[in-house]
């Protein structure tokens, strides 16, 4: 028998997917300069359904583990993608699984972008996707110094960071932060830590958003973030923001849906970057 939150996720996902898919399809049909692209509609509708369902599930079931809610949405995705409830048709399940991995990661990035930018409303800051930063650079609208631009281009080319922090100063846009957004980071924490260190060494704010912080039960991973151990003497990020934890631990912070702690840290980081960048090093920490 399905739990209440599983049933909620299945119904919400299906409703959101159908609504968004039909809206996109109708827009394409009405456009005189495009033809209907069903695959594109499917991808965008999937991302919207994942993002919306997860946001609503977090609000409706605040006491459920976020990893369980994310898994419930995965089941909803498999149910829709495969067309069967018992998931016995293995080829369809494999296809659905691959589709989930691709869509859910992008959906999580976009959800973080939307909620983080919403929290920054009224400030001179915003969070943008990697492709948006690339557009700014190509259009000559990013006003960082040439050394920064060159470094950022390398990160984009290597697809290192998922999001970037932007500040507007007298109508000119500057990038001051590099952001990773991961549904699960345990298996990639060593790989993701290295580029974060490089970002801090280049005097950028380097942070990571994580959905499932279960791996933080192991001291090794805590040390990889905070430093302080024989193996990992220094911190790997300026801060890690985790949806599935309730208590802060040095540079590891619990993240509520209002993103308020992120906003406060972003304000401090932007001020440090704009006024005292020469001291915006690896040791800097938001208060």
What does the secondary structure layout of this molecule look like, with pairings?
Elements: H1 4-30, H2 38-60, H3 66-82, H4 90-119, E1 125-129, H5 130-138, H6 146-157, E2 163-169, E3 172-184, H7 189-201, E4 205-212, H8 219-226, E5 239-242, E6 252-254, H9 260-275
Parallel strand pairs: 3-4, 4-5, 5-6
Antiparallel strand pairs: 1-2, 2-3
Helix pairs in contact: 1-2, 1-3, 2-3, 2-4, 3-4
Structural write-up:
It is a single chain. With 287 residues, the chain is α/β, with parallel strands linked by helices. It is built from nine helices and six strands; from the N terminus they run H-H-H-H-E-H-H-E-E-H-E-H-E-E-H. The protein has helices spanning 4-30, 38-60, 66-82, 90-119, 130-138, 146-157, 189-201, 219-226, 260-275, and strands at 125-129, 163-169, 172-184, 205-212, 239-242, 252-254. Strands 1-2-3-4-5-6 form a six-stranded mixed β-sheet, sandwiched between helices. A hairpin with a 2-residue loop joins strand 2 (163-169) and strand 3. Helix 1 (4-30) crosses helix 3, helix 2 runs antiparallel to helix 3 and helix 2 (38-60) packs across helix 4. The chain is globular.
């Amino acid at each position: 028998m399905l739990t209440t939150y599983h049933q909620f996720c299945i119904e919400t996902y299906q409703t959101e997917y159908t609504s968004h898919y039909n809206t996109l399809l109708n827009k394409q049909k009405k456009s005189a300069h495009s033809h209907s692209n069903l695959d594109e509609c499917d991808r965008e509708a999937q991302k919207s359904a994942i993002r919306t369902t997860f946001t609503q599930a977090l609000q409706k079931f605040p006491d459920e583990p976020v990893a369980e809610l994310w898994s419930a949405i995965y089941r909803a995705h498999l149910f829709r993608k495969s067309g069967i409830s018992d998931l016995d048709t293995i080829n369809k399940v494999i296809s659905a699984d691959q589709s989930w991995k691709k869509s859910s990661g992008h959906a999580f990035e976009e959800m973080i972008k939307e909620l983080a930018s919403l929290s920054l409303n009224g400030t001179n800051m915003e969070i943008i996707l990697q492709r948006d930063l690339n557009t700014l650079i190509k259009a000559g609208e990013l006003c960082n110094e040439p050394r920064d631009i060159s470094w950022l281009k390398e990160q984009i080319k290597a697809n290192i960071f998922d999001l970037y922090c932007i500040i507007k100063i007298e109508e000119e846009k500057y990038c001051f932060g590099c952001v990773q957004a991961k549904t699960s980071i345990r298996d990639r924490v060593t790989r993701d830590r290295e580029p974060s260190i490089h970002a801090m060494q280049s005097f950028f704010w380097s942070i990571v958003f994580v959905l499932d912080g279960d791996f933080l039960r192991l001291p090794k991973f805590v040390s990889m973030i905070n430093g302080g151990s024989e193996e990992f003497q220094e911190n790997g990020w300026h801060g890690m923001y985790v949806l599935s934890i309730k208590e802060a631990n040095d540079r590891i912070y619990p993240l509520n849906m209002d993103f308020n702690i992120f906003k406060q840290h972003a304000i401090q980081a932007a001020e440090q970057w704009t006024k005292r960048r020469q001291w915006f090093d690896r040791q800097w920490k938001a208060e």
